[in-house]
Write a structure and sequence with these properties.
The structure holds 3 protein chains of 3 kinds.
Chain A (H helix, E strand, L loop, with lengths): L8 H9 L39 H8 L4 E5 L13 E6 L2 E7 L24 H4 L10 E3 L8 E3 L2 H18 L5 E5 L7 H12 L3 E4 L1 H4 L4 H7 L16 E5 L3 H4 L4 H10 L2 E6 L11 E4 L5 H14 L5 H7 L5 E3 L8 H4 L9 E4 L3 E4 L18 E4 L5 E6 H10 L3 H8 L3 H13 L3 E4 L10 H14 L20 H7 L4 H20 L4 H15 L3 E2 H7 L10 H4 L7 H10 L15 E5 L3 H4 L4 H7 L5 E6 L4 H4 L3 E4 L8 E3 L7 E5 L11 H18 L4 E3 L5 E3 L3 H5 L10 H10 L9 H7 L1 E3 L26 H4 L19 H6 L18 E4 L15 H5 L6 E5 H6 L7 E5 L4 E9 L6 E3 L51 E7 L1
Parallel strand pairs in A: 6-7, 6-18, 7-17, 8-9, 8-16, 9-10, 18-19, 19-20, 26-30, 27-29
Antiparallel strand pairs in A: 1-2, 2-3, 4-5, 4-20, 11-15, 12-13, 14-15, 21-22, 22-25, 23-24, 26-31, 27-30, 28-29, 28-31
Chain B lengths: L1 E2 L7 H4 L5 H4 L4 E4 L1 E2 L8 H7 L9 E8 L3 E9 L16 E7 L16 E7 L5 E6 L5 E5 L4 E7 L2 E9 L16 E9 L11 E2 L4 E5 L2 H5 L1
Parallel strand pairs in B: 1-14
Antiparallel strand pairs in B: 2-4, 3-13, 4-5, 5-11, 6-7, 6-12, 7-8, 8-9, 10-11, 12-13, 12-14
Chain C lengths: L7 E6 L8 H10 L12 E5 L15 E2 L2 E2 L7 H4 L7 H6 L36 E5 L8 H5 L5 E3 L6 E3 L9 H5 L5 E4 L4 E4 L4 H5 L5 H4 L6 E5 L6 H8 L4 E2 L10 E4 L6 E2 L5 E2 L7 H8 L3 H16 L5 H7 L23
Parallel strand pairs in C: 1-12
Antiparallel strand pairs in C: 1-10, 2-5, 3-4, 6-7, 8-9, 11-12, 13-14
The chains are: A alpha/beta, B mainly beta, C alpha+beta.
Chain lengths: 961, 222, 342
């Protein structure tokens, strides 16, 4: 019996080089310079021992760091505040070997640090992720029950054909609105959306606006500014001398931007972190200020109290930029309106008092006050058109009255922040030359988050911290090119296009005549879309069609401020047309597409979806690059191309004001780009309908449309075929008004190009500020410097909301309200946050990421709370409330505030025993004030001003398993 | 030791420690000693092993046979644990080696010297086969081949049985031990007990050269 | 002792490290992808105070004491944190529905390379922690090199990089015992010890180490110790704000740290209490030596200057307005390299 060669290192490497060694990509990629040919054959009874001529062991390492080609790309996922980063993808032997940041961004100005290198640990291992077991390689059709994990591999033809048939049947038998698109965190607003957008419009499907549902609604910002989109460039923090990190954890969620904050500190900024727990960001602060979760409005109002009481208010700023000088009637508690004084006059025209001119209309076409000196104090009398006289007072007076009760001592009780800190913070804010805020979407996930944001915005307004470099409360960051809308519309033939453009032009002229700015006009168009079903609220879809409202059944028990059942308010809101639901209640959805979206993971109280929505749906299609909780419960799973597998470009935010794009680096089995999938689906629907002899259908307005010609329209008569991703990209970029001089070639090769403006897209125009190549970006400059009106009723930052629901709820001014005990009267508050370990769920079950954690979901609990429950670190605990329960590993930390639990987000349900994911007990109660509508800016529009889903108020108890 | 001639036997057959020729060969029992801690080549090793037992294996039996063209040693010793798996960072493999002088001046205890090397035929339990090593002093050994030395080890009921073999003569410029039937040379034995974390100079050793002669008599008779 | 001509070194600014582990992953995806290397994290970042990886390594010994080698032991795979495998296949395609959930295969872990992330020490509201990234320190007096009986570890003359010669290595692992930082790993497939190579193939091409270049926090400076134009000499020798970790181990590490500041504590009444620091002085001294208190005072003093609008050269270096300046001349873009096929 012969004995094989001893597998020592040299032999091992020879075998590897010959490609014979097994597992792991790395092994096959070694190349050695050997003096003799590689051979694995054992020497038989060798009598000669020629010494192996061998490349030095160092050469093994040197040769490992080599590649065939480099391609620019990025990770086309919703990193939101962190998006995006230009990466070089290194390809070896046709496969992606590794990635490394390109790190060649130009420095904006010499006195501000440059953006390089960007990137994060997640992006740095997508080369591994893209080949792992979670990938979907082929179209899958379920063969067992939904959720059983039993699949059959099918062809694209079969998948598309069956799905198309289901769409056709649904459209014809029940209606176009029954086909639903849930567009998740994988949405690019680039070529991907170009395809989905065209398809959706041609078939009049319902596309869910998921922004407020995912928890990024920034309602308080919307109520105050009439919009939520406004943010700075990350390097603009360098001009701030006081940075309040309040509602954010940039160590976790702004990884590539965080250096601007640590560096700003060195440059002399004071960095103050306000969080309940000693977070990973608090650790970098000059001061850490603790606060109760949800106590932030009280803290802000306590600070505002100090500002007002000690006359630290920037009166000029307030008089010009806010509604604080506008007059409110003492009898109705509503603004004094022109319609009150003169028959037939506007409901939107409001008044201020000038010492010389008396009570006069507040300027609306421009905020410039000219000769006016609006009074902030006083009580004045006006005669209404019916002859009655009423007293009116500036909002500032009402505010001062309200703030009187928010003494630092009382604010301390409500907020959990000690009174001396409240005073100190107010003084620092007042003293600051340019105070800014770092915030993300944390408060959007609190039931009373709107009040919190309004109170925070108030602080910056009272101290005039807007519009100057390094200053400002900020909203939701978003910056896109505006080529998408044009591309989507350009598929219509010329007569129809002219018709659409024509009617728009008429409407636009009317609004401009009335003093509406470009921004306001764009918002009006969106509002119309909500009325007609062109846009649809995701949050309300899940509440009503998904059955989520059930979880709010006990809300009156949880929310002490609730005046009447929320269902009653909902019915009123829908009846009055304040909010809209598509499809209309009672019209069950039938076909649902989850486009890189994962609602069963994302939606709070997701078991209700399985109970109420899933049975209604005849066809559920997940289009994704990986298996997910939702894919597991879908009927079809279609493999979408991973990020390095397609040519793409994507929106970003002003934080990083560069459009990012890149090329395809490799292919993966049967995966296709989203553009291609949409195109093939369009073509298949067309073909199947024609084959089946079905040509016509009615859209949701009753208008006749045709299946025949669908493909022609989608492809612009063949110009944009299924694999014309690049053509589409070029078209979008060429047509963008805010990428002047930028070509698709440049974006593709360099990986990015700086925006030249904010453009006209509804999700970008709100930034209201110029973008230049050589300066940082401060938002809202158009309003503060150029005096453009805000898109609000008052045309100003609006702190007084006199819509009837607000008056009913006592929220006309920002107040503090204790968080509801959502889920029941349990002592611990289950808060959350975004993890550093994943962008939503994209890396949540990634092997490398899990190895750097504990391999499974964990929940942080404070040391004393753990001790009281005999919970030790690493122990599995059961977490429960009135709704449900789950099990998770406890992580005990002295950094946690007593009473607070933190479960960072996006764990998939299948990472928990029995698939009982942690959001099963998060009720996301519906806050009735969010159902308001019908008043100027308090009407739903893209990404905001509609109800939201929240989770930070959830109450639970915990015990060892 | 006088090494009997095993007639009409292929050396590969001898790799089986239970093969008939072994059963009729009387082994020698050799007492082993641990290499002195003071002679360990680095201060770190000395610091780590001071006060610890070096050389867990205290006794070994050795038998040898030659086929006229190859020489095989059969080693057997008691070891309560079979240590083959190196997966853990703290795992070390049971191993054994036969040492032969490459020159008359070669010294066993120093593992040779640059001008007077020693030749080790080495077996380690975590791999099949043997390793052919030249020693030019403590810490100065180098593998010259992984195919010329044949070895196989079997662990049974608390005992290792290891056969290590090689051709008598090798055509090479390397300073290996070249053996001749009838000529007098020497040998030594080393054993590493993996369970005691033995490796390198931390081992049990049989001491200075023991005489080794390959019996020419039966060969002459054909 | 080494007779190197020049010594490369790294400085890590702990006031910029956000614990993102991009350095860890960038190293992993470059060097430790092959069989036998799965559990290796040549770069690791741990929350301090914490037990780190390998678990409680600071108590394991090694290095030198009073100039003599100090006994220690080899950490086990479990102590390092093993490379857990998961049952994705079963969960997604095994047809078991919710009966199968994603888990580590086999024995459930009790420790991992970053197990105690974000826990720290203290008592609320005075809890504290910071992040400590670590690589091989490429010491001037390397305990590993001196421990190896086969001289299989060498220190390069041209730049002081300490490398395990994987041809000479016989897997004895005396180096793993000797290293007090426990930054050497065992590859049981290739049967050699392995560790951080200071990215020498990149260095040779003028490209900075992956961990340094890929760090989004801009934490890591690279350069020669003697280069007076580079950041290392300035931070370590001119301004002396960068300190070695556990210098009492006696190995003269060439990785230095700018020590961490922290926000002030609170007293029992919830008032800010600046009489004691949030991170206890003794703790920082135990890590970085007695000079750490002076360094923190220097940093605070410099920040007071910049807050008043004055210039601070040392803070300007730490800010690194131009990212490329962090790398002491090793600022070549790797994507610009075109490899010749052999």
């Amino acid at each position: 019996m012969s004995v094989g060669p001893r597998l020592d290192r040299r032999t091992f490497l020879r075998i590897s080089a010959a490609g014979l060694a097994g597992a792991g990509l790395g092994l096959g990629l070694l190349r050695l310079r050997l003096a003799e040919p590689a051979s694995a054959a054992p020497a038989a009874a060798a009598a000669t021992a020629a010494p192996l001529a061998y490349g030095d062991w160092r050469d093994v390492y040197r040769e490992r760091w080599a590649w065939d080609k480099v391609v620019r790309s990025s990770h086309w996922v919703n990193c939101w505040y962190q998006a995006h980063c230009a990466w070089n993808v290194y390809v070896k032997d046709g496969m992606v070997w590794r990635e490394e940041q390109a790190a060649d961004y130009p420095q904006t100005r010499p006195d501000v640090p440059d953006y390089n290198p960007r990137g994060c640990q997640k992006g740095a291992c997508f080369s591994e992720r893209m080949y792992d077991t979670a990938r979907v390689k082929y179209p899958l059709k379920r063969v067992g029950e939904r959720g059983s994990g039993k699949w059959q591999r099918i062809s694209w033809e079969q998948a598309l054909s069956e799905i198309a048939d289901s769409m056709i049947d649904t459209i014809v038998q029940e209606g176009t609105d029954r086909v639903i698109w849930d567009l998740g965190p994988g949405v690019s607003l680039g070529t991907q959306m170009a395809g989905q957008g065209r398809l959706r419009i041609l078939l009049d499907s319902t596309a869910l606006d998921m922004n407020t549902e995912i928890g990024d609604g920034h309602r308080g910002a919307a109520e105050t500014f009439g919009k939520i989109v406004f943010e700075r460039s990350a390097d603009d923090y360098f001009f701030s001398d006081l940075i309040l990190c309040w509602g954010a954890n940039p160590s976790y969620t702004q990884i590539p931007n965080a250096h601007f904050l640590t560096e700003a500190r060195y440059k002399g900024a004071e960095f103050i972190c306000i969080t309940p727990d000693y977070s990973a960001t608090a650790r970098h602060a000059d001061r850490w200020i603790p606060v109760k979760p949800g106590g932030d409005a009280a803290l802000a109002l306590g600070m505002a109290h100090v500002l007002v009481a000690e006359n630290l208010v920037d009166r000029d700023f307030v008089a010009e930029q806010t509604d604080l000088p506008l007059l409110v009637r003492e009898d109705t508690h509503r603004y004094l309106r022109a319609a009150d004084l003169v028959e037939g006059e506007s409901e939107d025209a409001l008044y201020l008092h000038d010492p010389d001119a008396g009570v006069v209309l507040a300027p609306t076409r421009s905020l410039a006050l000219a000769e006016l000196h609006p009074s902030l104090e006083g009580r004045f009398e006006v005669t209404l058109r019916d002859g009655k006289t009423v007293a009116v007072r500036p909002v500032f007076e009402l505010l001062r009255e309200q703030l009187a009760s928010y003494t630092p001592e009382r604010a301390a009780e409500l907020s959990g922040t000690p009174a001396p800190q409240i005073r100190d913070l107010a003084h620092r804010l007042a003293r600051a030359k340019s105070a800014s805020m770092v915030t993300t979407s944390n408060f959007s996930k609190y039931y009373h988050g709107n009040l919190i944001e309004r109170a925070q915005a108030l602080l910056f307004a009272l101290t005039g911290n807007f519009g100057k470099k390094g200053s400002g409360f900020v909203g939701f960051p978003f910056l896109v090119h505006d080529g998408l809308e044009g591309f989507v519309l350009s598929m219509f033939d010329l007569p129809l296009r002219l018709l659409i453009q024509g009617s728009r032009a008429v409407e636009e002229a009317r609004l401009r005549y009335a003093g509406f700015t470009d921004e306001m006009i764009v918002y009006e168009r969106s509002r119309k879309g909500y009325e007609t079903g062109q846009e649809a609220s995701g949050a309300l879809f899940w509440y009503i069609h998904g059955g989520l409202l059930e979880a709010s059944a006990s809300l009156q028990d949880w929310d002490p401020y609730l005046k009447r059942p929320v269902r009653e308010v909902l019915d009123e809101s829908l009846a009055k047309g304040w909010q809209h639901v598509w499809p209309k209640p009672g019209n069950d959805p039938r076909v649902m597409f989850c486009l890189v979206s994962n609602p069963l993971r994302r939606i709070r109280s997701y078991p209700l979806l399985l109970e109420h929505l899933w049975p209604k749906l005849r066809t559920i299609v997940t289009i994704d690059w990986r298996m997910t909780s939702t894919a597991m419960h879908s009927d079809y799973v279609l493999p979408a191309a991973g990020w390095y597998e397609k040519t793409e470009h994507k929106w970003v935010t002003p934080l990083v004001p560069f459009i990012h794009g890149g090329e395809k680096a490799a292919s993966f089995f049967d995966a296709k780009s989203d553009w291609e999938i949409a195109a093939l689906l369009a073509r298949t629907v067309d073909e199947r309908a024609v084959k089946r002899g079905i040509t016509d259908f009615k859209d949701r307005t009753g208008r006749e449309r045709s299946f025949a010609g669908l493909w022609k329209a989608f492809s612009s008569d063949g110009e944009f075929g299924p694999t014309d991703d690049e053509k589409v990209a070029k078209e979008l970029i060429d047509n963008a008004s805010n990428l002047e001089g930028v070509s698709w070639e440049e974006v593709k090769k360099r990986g990015y190009a700086r925006f030249t403006g904010v453009g006209n897209s509804i999700v970008s125009i709100g930034n209201a500020t110029p973008i230049t190549a050589d300066d940082t970006i401060t938002p809202l400059v158009d309003h503060v410097i150029d005096k453009k009106p805000y898109p609000t009723l008052s045309r100003r930052m609006q702190f007084y909301l006199d819509q009837e629901l607000y008056l009913e709820m006592g929220e006309q001014l920002p107040v503090h309200k204790d968080p509801p005990t959502a889920g029941g009267h349990y002592p611990l508050q289950l808060t959350g946050g975004h993890t550093r370990w994943s962008i939503h769920a994209a890396w949540r079950d990634d092997k490398l990421m899990l190895r750097q954690q504990r391999g499974e979901p964990v929940m942080f609990i404070g040391a004393k709370d753990a001790e009281a429950r005999t919970v030790r670190d690493g122990m599995r605990v059961r977490v429960w409330n009135d709704l449900a329960s789950f099990e998770v590993m406890a992580k005990v930390s002295p950094a946690l505030r007593p009473g607070q639990l933190i479960l960072y987000h996006a764990w998939e349900n299948y990472q928990f025993p029995k698939g009982k994911g942690f959001q099963n007990l998060v009720p996301s109660p519906l806050n009735p004030v969010e159902l308001a509508g019908g008043q100027f800016h308090l009407r739903p529009m893209t990404i905001c001003l509609q109800p939201s889903h929240t989770d930070r108020d959830t109450r639970v108890e915990v015990a060892p398993v | 030791m006088l090494v009997p001639y095993a007639a009409n036997v292929d050396v590969d057959a001898l790799l089986d420690a239970d093969a008939a020729p072994w059963r009729s060969t009387a082994p020698e029992t050799i007492a082993m000693m641990g290499t002195p801690v003071g002679l360990q080549p680095t201060g770190a090793i000395r610091a780590a092993w001071t006060g610890k037992k070096i050389g867990a294996v205290e006794r070994i039996t050795v038998a040898a046979l030659h086929t006229g063209s190859a020489l095989a040693f059969r080693l057997e010793w008691a070891d309560p644990t079979e240590n083959r798996d190196l997966t853990d960072t703290t795992s070390f493999a049971d191993a054994a080696a036969v040492l032969l002088p490459s020159t008359p001046a070669s010294v066993a205890m120093t593992m040779g010297a640059p001008t007077a090397p020693v030749n080790a035929w080495y077996w380690r339990s975590d791999a099949d086969g043997g390793r052919h090593v030249i020693g030019e002093g403590i810490g100065a050994s180098r593998t010259i081949d992984v195919e010329l030395v044949r070895a196989r080890g079997v662990w049974k009921e608390g005992r290792w049985q290891v056969v290590i073999a090689r051709a008598l003569r090798i055509d090479t410029k390397e300073p290996v031990a070249q053996l001749e039937v009838g000529a007098k040379t020497g040998f030594a034995v080393a054993v590493w007990d993996g369970a005691n974390s033995e490796r390198g100079g931390i081992k049990a050793f049989s001491g200075d050269w023991r005489e080794l002669v390959l019996d020419a008599t039966k060969l002459a008779r054909g | 002792m080494s007779e190197v001509k020049r010594q490369l070194a790294m400085v890590m600014d702990l006031n910029k490290c956000i614990g993102c582990q991009t350095c860890t992953i960038s190293c992993k995806r470059l060097w430790t992808r092959d069989e036998g290397m799965e559990y290796m994290w040549w770069n690791s970042v741990n929350t301090m105070p914490g037990l780190g990886t390998p678990k409680d390594w600071e108590q394991m010994g090694g290095g030198f004491r009073d100039g003599q080698p100090n006994a220690s032991r080899i950490p086990t795979r479990k102590e390092f944190g093993d490379a857990w495998e998961f049952n994705h296949e079963e969960v997604f395609f095994g047809g078991k529905g919710s009966e199968a959930h994603l888990q580590v295969k086999g024995e459930q872990p009790e420790w991992g390379p970053n197990w105690d992330e974000d826990q720290g020490a203290g008592e609320y509201p005075n809890g504290y922690y910071f992040y400590l990234p670590r690589i091989c320190n490429h010491c001037t007096h390397p305990a590993c090199l001196e421990a190896c009986p086969r001289q299989a570890i060498e220190k390069r003359e041209q730049d002081g990089i300490v490398l395990i010669n994987e041809d000479r290595c016989r897997g004895y692992r005396f180096c793993m015992e000797a290293c007090p930082y426990k930054k050497i790993y065992w590859n049981h497939v290739q049967k050699v010890a392995q560790k951080c190579i200071f990215c020498f193939p990149r260095i040779e091409q003028g490209v900075a180490n992956a961990c340094a270049r890929q760090c989004p926090g801009r934490v890591r400076f690279v350069g020669y110790r003697d280069d007076q134009n580079g950041p290392i000499w300035k931070l370590v020798d001119k301004y002396k704000v960068a300190l070695p970790l556990h210098s009492e181990f006696g190995t003269e590490p060439n990785v230095f740290y700018v020590p961490p500041l922290a926000p002030p504590r609170f007293d029992a009444n919830g008032e800010i209490d600046e009489s004691q620091p949030r991170i206890p002085n003794e703790y920082l001294v135990s890590l970085f030596g007695p000079r750490v208190l002076e360094v923190l005072a220097t940093l605070k003093g410099e920040m007071t200057k910049t807050r008043a609008g004055q210039k601070s050269e040392v803070l300007d270096i730490l800010i690194a307005y131009k990212w490329k300046d962090m790398f002491g001349g090793f600022d070549r873009d790797p994507a610009s390299i075109e490899w010749k096929k052999t």
